[in-house]
Design brief:
The protein is of the alpha+beta class and about 120 residues long. The chain has helices at about 5-15, 45-65, 100-120; strands spanning about 20-30, 35, 70-75, 80-85, 90-95. α1 runs antiparallel to α3 (about 100-120). The longest helix has 21 residues, at about 45-65. The N and C termini lie close together (about 10 Å).
Length: about 120
């Protein structure tokens, strides 16, 4: 079972391994925030958007005959959001600076997601 502390530990691990991370949040797939190391004022809105992003990416991948969504990335001039499903019950998003090394972030993120999946009994 995943507890909030697990999400915060993953956030700390990511921040330690990758420069340029602004925020890490774990959300339930119904859009409910679960753990978030960012400001509280926009937590609900961002959680819902993360789930929408993951779902849209899943459907886009399926439309292109691709399966097994790993991550979806939204890049802007002033940053990026990397979102990923964590089993069927959760999704995780990392909000980062525009200078973040996205390849490194995805390499560090993958085993952390697998760790959370194992805790949730999905592995």
């Amino acid at each position: 079972m995943i507890i909030r502390q697990n999400g915060l530990q993953v956030a700390a691990t990511l921040r330690h391994a990758v420069d340029g991370i602004r925020r890490v949040l774990l959300v339930q797939r119904d859009g409910t925030p679960f753990s978030d190391d960012g400001p509280e004022h926009d937590r609900d809105r961002l959680a819902a958007l993360v789930v929408a992003c993951v779902e849209m990416a899943h459907h886009t991948a399926a439309g292109a005959a691709l399966t097994g969504l790993a991550t979806c990335v939204v890049r802007t001039d002033d940053g990026a959001v990397v979102a990923t499903p964590v089993g069927d019950r959760f999704a995780m998003a990392v909000v980062a600076e525009p200078t973040v090394n996205l390849v490194l972030l995805q390499r560090v993120l993958a085993p952390q997601v697998e760790h959370l999946r194992a805790l949730d009994g999905v592995a």
